[in-house]
């Protein structure tokens, strides 16, 4: 290591240590550092803001970006944290880096990791919380869904006056009595039937009487208009309702909320939930439906996760996958493409990906079996696992290219017969793929997330 | 001639946390190569399990809350499950399923929860620790090596009549002390290997399927099925 990077590493590590320590109470802080920095810096800085905390397993990033866009229609000054900075260090840094607000009382819209909600509420009482959903997610890191929800509630308990804006279709958000005012959003576009969730779904027990929940209508996973035939527990009254679901493609969705038409330039039912959450926050903060629509139309770049990259004429879409529900939704979304496409699956199992690859078996790759995909490529550090997954899903060997090396995967992509290529990749595989595409000049450096 | 096997997926809607359904998919994958059709049915809360209706059973792992509920409900299926096991019914049980076939386990809040005692093991809990990571074991009888991923708080101790599924080569195993991993009793295979154990260890899928076939069709010749090559997937 060079002298310069040694100094940089030391500086980074000591500031990490400092922030980490003082946010945990700072009792053992050396006096000279305490003199330099206020131990309650988050309290001091946060006090100037109306804070909205967005948390949950999936959709935090896009919901936060969309919410910022929506609120910008009415509020000029909004502070938000960059993607990936959703733990205590990143949030403190976000506030430390903030410019002095132009107006009296600006907003801060923060994406917060589930376990870090309490690290915000120790210092700041937010105006509102947004709960997107809780699904099983890299369980070697996060634990079970009930544990995750309890971590969020431990943080919420310190802010009993904050309004909770929650996904009403998710039964877990109706499972505990809370003192907070609560508003729910959800899908209300189907006539009532009587269904059960697919067998391989998490969180289908009634929180009240522990029988298996039924649904009048289901969107995906365990979300929908649930009810318990045994005890009468049911979905709460919705404040914000998705009243009509229109055309869905991999790159766009049309729908109506409370009777108002909207279009977003991104596919996937899960992204409609994100838009619904942003709408709910907007309405809660006094933004009109017309302004919400303007915001959805104006902000294309927030959908960066589905950026299309031109690789010698192939339209390549790289999509991050990290847990079963997200994976299922991505598979469903690409299934809405009316054009033929090729599929690439890149699996790593580093810490950021989740070190247990079991979850790929919970993704319903079988739904692609009747799509007649001409070429499937599997690669990445754990290519054997994803290769066998797709073999079992029914991909024939003569259409299946196994190529662990990502450089060579790019060469194989250039040779496929379709114009469209979907690359599903775990986090570190996506970073590696982007780096290769950047080195070859197909994409600018950086994440585009 | 083609064969059919009826498979009970025990509590498939509750005990399904870590890719457990991959075992059903892998069984189906190898069954097809053996000219066998599987009819899989989820048998869950308040539903009857009749030993005579099934040729093969799978019991996966679940979250703490779900496992607590299953621990109560499975008592109503105890007699028929024991009948199935004692009559050499092939069964694969993972994590929570493994624990619930034994006498008892210790739940997340320290409470002692009953299993069905079909197998003679019991499970204690580690204090604020889990065994998490890749694991490799070796079965002494067959010489087969199995690869998997473990993630469990439970410490399981085998009892009378049980042999381990394998001895730990690397990783922790049943309890981190005695070098055993999983259990075999008659045609029951148990393991802490997460979720999709059969996807990486096709040999176990083959053992289960062949045992089920021989039990259901005692006069048929399954030498071809037994000779099915299982290429490495890991």
Automatic annotation (TrEMBL), chain A:
The pathway entry for this protein reads as: Cell wall biogenesis; peptidoglycan biosynthesis
Domain Mur ligase central intervals: 54-281
Decide whether keyword Metal-binding is in the record: yes
Q: Where does Zn(2+) bind?
A: 206, 209, 228, 231
**Domain of life of the organism in this record?**
Bacteria
E.C. number(s) listed in UniProt:
6.3.5.13
Q: Return the InterPro entries for the record.
A: Lipid_II_synth_MurT, Mur-like_cat_sf, Mur_ligase_cen, MurT_C
Q: Which HAMAP family match?
A: Lipid_II_synth_MurT
Q: What assembly does the database describe for this protein?
A: Forms a heterodimer with GatD.
Query: Family assignment?
Result: Belongs to the MurCDEF family. MurT subfamily.
UniProt-recorded name of the protein:
Lipid II isoglutaminyl synthase (glutamine-hydrolyzing) subunit MurT
What gene name does this entry carry?
A: murT
TrEMBL record, chain B:
Instruction: State the pathway, as annotated in the record.
Output: Cell wall biogenesis; peptidoglycan biosynthesis
CDD domains assigned: GATase1_CobQ
Q: Does the keyword Phosphoprotein apply?
A: no
Q: Which residues form the active site?
A: 95, 194
The residues the record assigns to binding substrate are 130
* Reactions the enzyme catalyzes: beta-D-GlcNAc-(1->4)-Mur2Ac(oyl-L-Ala-gamma-D-Glu-L-Lys-D-Ala-D-Ala)-di-trans,octa-cis-undecaprenyl diphosphate + L-glutamine + ATP + H2O = beta-D-GlcNAc-(1->4)-Mur2Ac(oyl-L-Ala-D-isoglutaminyl-L-Lys-D-Ala-D-Ala)-di-trans,octa-cis-undecaprenyl diphosphate + L-glutamate + ADP + phosphate + H(+); L-glutamine + H2O = L-glutamate + NH4(+)
What is this protein for, i.e. what is its function? The lipid II isoglutaminyl synthase complex catalyzes the formation of alpha-D-isoglutamine in the cell wall lipid II stem peptide. The GatD subunit catalyzes the hydrolysis of glutamine to glutamate and ammonia. The resulting ammonia molecule is channeled to the active site of MurT.
Quaternary data: Forms a heterodimer with MurT.
Please name the PANTHER family in this protein's record: DETHIOBIOTIN SYNTHETASE, LIPID II ISOGLUTAMINYL SYNTHASE (GLUTAMINE-HYDROLYZING) SUBUNIT GATD
Quote the protein name from its UniProt record.
Lipid II isoglutaminyl synthase (glutamine-hydrolyzing) subunit GatD
Species per Swiss-Prot/TrEMBL record: Levilactobacillus angrenensis
């Amino acid at each position: 290591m060079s002298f310069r990077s040694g100094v940089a590493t030391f500086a980074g590590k000591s500031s990490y240590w400092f922030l980490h320590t003082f946010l945990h109470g700072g009792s053992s802080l050396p006096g000279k550092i305490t003199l330099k920095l206020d131990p309650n810096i988050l309290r001091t800085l946060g006090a100037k803001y109306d804070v909205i905390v967005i948390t949950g397993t999936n959709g935090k990033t896009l919901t936060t970006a969309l919410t910022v866009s929506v609120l910008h229609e009415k509020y000029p000054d909004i502070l938000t944290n960059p993607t990936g900075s959703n733990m205590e260090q990143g949030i403190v840094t976000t506030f430390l880096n903030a410019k002095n607000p132009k107006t009296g009382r600006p907003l801060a819209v923060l994406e917060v990791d589930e376990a870090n909600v309490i690290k915000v509420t120790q210092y700041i009482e937010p105006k509102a919380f947004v709960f997107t959903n809780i699904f099983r997610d890299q369980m070697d890191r996060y634990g079970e869904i009930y544990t995750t929800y309890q971590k969020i509630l431990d943080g919420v308990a310190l802010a009993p006056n904050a309004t909770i804006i929650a996904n009403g279709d998710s039964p877990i958000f109706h499972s505990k009595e809370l003192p907070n005012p609560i508003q729910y959003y959800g899908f209300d576009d189907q006539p009532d039937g009587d269904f059960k969730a697919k067998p391989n779904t998490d969180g289908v027990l009634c929180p009240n009487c522990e029988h298996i929940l039924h649904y009048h209508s289901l969107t995906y996973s365990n979300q929908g208009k649930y009810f318990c035939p045994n005890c009468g527990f049911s979905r709460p009254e919705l404040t914000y309702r998705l009243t009509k679901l229109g055309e869905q493609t991999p790159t766009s969705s049309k729908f109506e909320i409370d009777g108002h038409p909207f279009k977003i330039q991104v596919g996937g039912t899960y992204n409609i939930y994100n838009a619904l959450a942003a709408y709910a926050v907007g309405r809660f903060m006094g933004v009109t439906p017309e302004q919400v629509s303007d915001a959805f139309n104006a902000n294309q770049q927030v959908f960066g996760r589905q950026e299309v990259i031109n690789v010698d004429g192939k339209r390549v879409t790289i999509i991050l996958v990290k847990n079963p529900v997200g994976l299922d939704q991505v598979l469903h979304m690409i299934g809405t493409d009316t054009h033929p496409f090729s599929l690439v699956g890149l699996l790593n199992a580093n810490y950021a990906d989740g070190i247990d690859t079991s979850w790929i078996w919970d993704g319903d790759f079988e739904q692609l079996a009747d799509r007649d995909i001409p070429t499937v490529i599997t690669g990445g550090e754990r290519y054997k696992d994803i290769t066998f997954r797709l073999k079992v899903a029914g991909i024939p060997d003569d259409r299946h290219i196994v190529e662990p090396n990502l450089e060579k995967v790019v060469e194989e992509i250039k040779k496929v017969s379709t114009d469209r290529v979907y690359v599903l990749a775990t986090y570190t595989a996506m970073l590696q793929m982007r780096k290769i595409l950047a080195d070859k000049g197909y994409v600018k450096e950086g994440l585009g997330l | 001639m083609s064969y059919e096997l009826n498979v009970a997926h025990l509590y498939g809607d509750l005990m399904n946390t870590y890719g457990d359904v991959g075992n059903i998919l892998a069984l189906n994958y190898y069954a097809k190569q053996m000219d066998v059709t599987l009819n899989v049915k989820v048998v869950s809360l308040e539903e009857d399990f009749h030993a005579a209706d099934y040729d093969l059973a799978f019991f996966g792992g679940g979250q703490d809350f779900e496992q607590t509920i299953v621990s109560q409900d499975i008592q109503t299926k105890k007699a028929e499950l024991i009948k199935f096991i004692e009559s050499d019914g092939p069964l694969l049980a993972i994590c929570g399923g493994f624990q619930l076939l034994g006498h008892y386990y210790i739940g997340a809040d320290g409470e002692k929860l009953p299993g069905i005692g079909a197998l003679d093991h019991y499970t204690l809990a580690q204090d604020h620790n889990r065994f998490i990571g890749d694991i490799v074991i070796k079965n002494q009888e067959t010489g087969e090596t199995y690869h998997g991923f473990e993630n469990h708080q439970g410490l399981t101790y085998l009892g009378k009549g049980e042999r381990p599924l394998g001895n730990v080569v690397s990783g922790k195993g049943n309890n981190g002390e005695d070098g055993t991993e999983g259990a075999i009793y008659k045609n029951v295979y148990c393991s802490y290997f997460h979720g999709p154990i059969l996807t990486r260890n096709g040999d176990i899928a083959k053992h289960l399927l062949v045992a089920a076939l021989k039990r259901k069709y005692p006069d048929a010749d399954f030498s071809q099925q037994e000779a099915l090559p299982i290429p490495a997937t890991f």
